TrEMBL record:
Transmembrane segments: 6-23
The keyword Membrane is annotated on this UniProt entry: yes
The species this protein was found in: Natribacillus halophilus
Residue ranges, annotated region (Disordered): 69-96
UniProt keyword list: Membrane, Transmembrane, Transmembrane helix
Biased composition (Basic and acidic residues): 78-88
Name used for this protein in its record: Uncharacterized protein
């Protein structure tokens, strides 16, 4: 039985030694992974700083370009506005005012034309002109 205990103890010692050996090996391989991770982090931080410096240098140049383009555009718009004179729109055919024969007769009477002259000018009978003028006088 003592032999059995001695063999068991030897096997335990061998197992513990093997476990320790494997643990140390895994620590050695983990170290490069951590180093690589740290290197990547430092490189990305360095790139971020470089990008920020570049943006800081480009901002004044971009602002100047934007200002110049906006100024040029505003000047062109002003020149176009000055070149164009205001022209009122032509009235559409539907919106035109039609002067009625009654209004024409009243206008001619106001000028001082006689009933016969008004009738001749408007191609109306003298009775029609007389009727239109009586409406004006309120008779």
């Amino acid at each position: 039985m003592t032999l059995f205990v001695i063999v068991s103890m030897l096997l335990h010692i061998v197992s513990v030694t093997a476990i320790l050996y494997l643990y140390r090996q895994s620590q050695k391989t983990a170290a490069p992974e951590e180093k690589i991770e740290q290197l990547l982090i430092s490189y990305t931080e360095e790139m971020k700083k470089d990008n920020e410096r570049l943006l800081q240098r480009l901002k004044p140049q971009q602002a100047e370009r934007v200002f110049q383009s906006e100024l040029t555009q505003a000047l062109q718009n002003q020149e176009e506005k000055e070149a164009k004179r205001y022209e009122p729109p032509e009235p559409a055919g539907e919106n035109e005012i039609e002067v009625t024969p009654a209004a024409q007769a009243l206008r001619l009477a106001h000028i001082g034309k006689s009933k016969e002259e008004i009738a001749r000018e408007l191609s109306l009978t003298s009775g029609e002109v007389e009727l239109l003028l009586k409406k004006r006088d309120g008779h």
